[in-house]
Specification:
It is a single chain. With 66 residues, this protein is mostly helical. 82% of the residues lie in helices and 0% in strands. The longest helix has 38 residues, at 27-64.
Length: 66
Amino acid sequence: MSLIPTRLRQKLRAAAQDLLADERGDVPGWVLITLMTAGLVVAIWALAGPALAGLFEQAIARVSGF
């Protein structure tokens, strides 16, 4: 004997199947987010790259100076 009535079980099963059928996602949105993130990384790298390179060289010089 089931704890869930048959009618309720059928409604739950139908709702679950509807949710699974709608699981398509938003591909253009994810592509846009990916491209924008890549663009931000390139822009930040272009602005901060020389400063980070100088910081790295200064750290290596200090370690090598000992």
